[in-house]
Amino acid sequence: MGVHKLLSKLESAEPLRSMSVEELDQLGLEIRDVLCNLLATRTAHFASNLGVVELCLALHSVFDFRKDRLIWDTGHQIYPHKLITGRYGEFKTIRLRGGLMGYPNPQESEYDLFMTGHAGCSVSTALGLKSGDDLLNASDRKSIAVIGDGAFPSGIVFEAMNNAGELNKDLIVILNDNKMSICPRVGAMANYLDRLRTNPFYTGLKSEVVKVLNRLPVFGDPTERLLAQIKEGVKAGMVGGMLFEEFGFRYIGPIDGHDIRLLRKYLEMVRDQKGPTLLHVVTEKGRGYKPAEKDPVYFHTPPAFEDEDGNPRVLSVGEKPAFTNYARDAIASQMRRDSRVTVMTAAMCQGNKLEPVRDEFPDRFFDVGICESHAVAFAAGQAKVGLRPIVAIYSTFMQRSYDQIFQEVALQNLPVTMMLDRAGLTGPDGPTHHGLFDIGYMRVFPNIVMMAPGDSTEVEPMLEFSLKHNGPCSIRYPKTSALAFERTPQRIELGKAEVIRRGSDGAIVAIGAMLQQALAAAEILEQEGIHVTVVNGRFIKPLDVDLLGQLFEECRFVVTVEEGALAGGFGSAVLEAACQHGWDTRIMRILGIPDRFIEHGERNELLQELGLDASGIARTCRQLSENYADIQAAGV
Fold it and tell me: What pLDDT digit, counting tens, does each position of 256-298 carry?
């Protein structure tokens, strides 16, 4: 690690306001050194943070964000901001259990206002901050949203801009344009931004022409109307209608986002502008590290480096592929079998490992950008005409399409398959990304069938079942390696669970990948003379009521285990069934995620902390077994 003479002295960002451009450039080099050294120890968001170093430094050198407002959209590009706001000494703990969060965190610093783990909401929240400050007579506070070009097409951004244009607040939106989301950006907005970036007439002359136009004197009607028409006509001729200015924003740019001197000049200018302003800043994702510049997709969240040349570490010997890999292969297999099958994702082609599917089936693969609501409604339209669409989106991001799941899919009973990657604990990504709520938010809707594969062998059969089912289905799977348990698996039948092993004392009913922990718990209990049945639940909805009824009748205890929120989850569904059928709920316990947000940490660490590892499950079973005599003595 290099010597960080400037960075190590920063207890806040205040000193940046008096630094020279040369000092800020040096500070930028130190920040990049810290980021590269971080990747020597663990995986982390990388290319996006390298790309905003100069922008971050320029912002903090012009504004005082202890008073002014700054929202980073999305928050994975927060590392430089954290380093210069007094967290350099703790930075080595980032994304580790008990350490700094990899996203903004108001509990860490007054410089962080929101936990921004999902894209697109910065303009809305920044506008709300400004509106609130004005109402509270704090109108001297500036409000700034930094949003990437990948997040910009999100529907909520245009809802916010529409409102901002009407309110005419002094709002600053910085469009950080690096031609990327996680993968290369897609859509008409991407093409529009490309035209803005490459139009030589516009980039060379716009600022000077607009400066002249804005200095035109204001006369009374009709001369005023004539000059206004000339002014808008020139603007329209320069850049095809000036989309942003039609929303009421003063558009400035594009400018070089790696030139601190230029950035400071323009930030000082927009700081004093009245009304909504959009500053278009062009940056390069991965800036300052050649491999990341060449391949910003891979280096978005790369594995930890193995050596000083940045060669990544490889999977350890014997390490199994993730559920995501099996899901990707299952999708490709089904698309080869049935020309009606399509797949769509929301700017997560790389995260869902769908690049081979995209390349093999370009006409049936749709990346809609960070527009999850649109993805689900779009899929509903395809299903209505007879296709079998698969919507592959992380559990935490699928929440953004909740109303479309209700109205356009479930209510219409359309055969849309929703594949929920990262359903469960996502480790170092933390509370913004843990996929803990999809069971609760989907289970309430009629018509939806909900499944979770217990191991790798069930992923494709579940997908095949879903694509043949004449209604909506969801398949959830976590961010972890997928094992294959030795057995002769039963075929997938609607609402039927699978008994993996038999025992006479009690039963553990596991849903999804928690089957691994359940089987390990059964082995622990076997050594203690407690023989348990282990059930692979498979279906969250509908439940296997017949099998559950047998378990409650024959076993001394029944424990359900899920990697999801207890409120409204799989265990809650079993309890509802128990109440309906009169089963003895005194012998039952449900294990899952308690009613609180779970901090970041390695998945195995979190499972242990929550009592969801093998020893925790065994402990619960042991307690229930010991309590059985008391239940018998108490009678019915």
Answer: 999 999 999 999 999 989 999 999 999 988 787 777 666 666 6
| Preceding amide of 222 cis, omega within 30 | yes
Q: What SS3 state is found at 281?
A: strand
Number of compact structural domains in the chain? 4
Same domain, 140 and 283: yes
Q: Who's near 396: CB < 8 A, 6+ residues apart?
A: 117, 118, 422, 426, 432, 433, 434, 435
Residues 507, 535 contacting (CB under 8 angstroms): yes
- Spell out where 190-272 has E strands: 250-256
Q: Is 310 a domain residue? A: no
Q: Model pTM?
A: 0.80
Cα gap 414→571, rounded to integer Å: 27
- Is residue 88 within 8 Å of residue 100, measured between CB atoms? no
Those residues with Cβ within 8 angstroms of residue 531's Cβ, 6 or more apart along the chain or in another chain: 503, 504, 505, 525
DSSP-assigned beta bridge partners for residue 508:
534, 559
CA distance 586 to 104: 43
With beta carbons less than 8 A apart as the criterion, state whether 394 and 420 touch. Answer: yes
Q: Indicate whether 232 and 250 sit together in one domain.
A: no
On whether both 387 and 449 belong to a single domain, the answer is yes
Q: Which residue has the tokens 């200095």?
A: 215
Instruction: Give residue-wise pLDDT tens across range 231-249.
Output: 444 444 444 337 888 888 9
Edge-first strand listing for the sheet containing 539-541 = 365-367, 341-345, 388-394, 417-421, 473-476, 449-451, 539-541
Q: What is the CA radius of gyration of the chain?
A: 27
Report the range out of 227-236, 245-254, 536-545 with the highest average pLDDT.
536-545
DSSP letter at 406 equals I
* 388: DSSP letter: E
The reply to whether 491 falls in a domain is no
Report the alpha-carbon angle 614-620-624, nearest 5.
140
CB 130 within 8 A of CB 143: yes
Say how many residues make up the chain.
Answer: 636
In a domain, residue 554? The reply is yes
CB 52 within 8 A of CB 78: no
| DSSP per residue, 568-617 | TSHHHHHHHHHHHHT--GGGEEEEEE-SS------HHHHHHHTT-SHHHH
Q: Are residues 343 and 328 in the same domain?
A: yes
Q: Where are the beta strands (DSSP E) in 193-312?
A: 250-256, 277-282
Q: Are residues 185 and 258 in the same domain?
A: yes
pLDDT tens-digit series, residues 87-120: 999 989 988 888 888 888 888 899 999 888 888 8
Nearest to 254 by CA among 197, 313, 180, 328: 197
Read off the tokens for 161.
């801009």
Catalytic residues: 285, 372, 400
We report the CATH number of the domain holding residue 379 as 3.40.50.970
Mean of per-residue pLDDT scores for the chain: 87
Parent domain of 346: 323-476
Using an 8 Å Cβ cutoff, are 44 and 309 in contact?
Answer: no
Q: Look up tokens 């499972």; give the residue.
A: 607
Residues 335 and 399 both lie in one domain? yes
